[in-house]
Write a structure and sequence with these properties.
This protein is an all-beta fold. It is built from no helices and 16 strands. Helices cover 0% and strands 54% of the residues.
Length: 188
Amino acid sequence: MASTSDIKNGLCIKYNNDIYKIIEFLHVKPGKGPAFVRTKLRSLTNGKVLDNTFSAGHKIEEVRVENHKFQFLYPEGDEFHFMNTETFEQITLNKNILDSPDLLKEGENVMVSINTETDLPLSVDMPASVILEVTYAEPGIKGNTATNATKSATVETGATVNVPLFINEGDKIKIDTASGSYMERVKE
């Protein structure tokens, strides 16, 4: 059993007969009253996000997980196929386990958290950013740069991302996987 002082991002816990992963947490020590921990939890079975507050010293049941490196092979409907890079064993995961499945390119390496008790995959941790090629972008209108103007662009995985006006088809861009937003243009 762990307590609220052991809470950190990425920790998997059992709560309300489900397994949750901690996305965000904040230790709060108000001037009056006891301390508490505000958390944002994501269910690893259905993907729903839940806000919860634990009082300081509250006991939480930790789930033991192992992280393994997997390579994304291909999508098939709502199923995504991965291969363990060490054992070459293949697994199939549902789309709702992934944080941002529309940014996943074939051949991309991800970390899969596996429950050590049941040997079932719990979550997939994407890399912090991915580099994708723009396959479609409206042409930028000259003189439309009074503010930080953006346009939508489609990348090679089919995802739509808001990008600055100077991005054209064929450009490679870096995308933040946590927010799905444009970071920078990549020169080769």
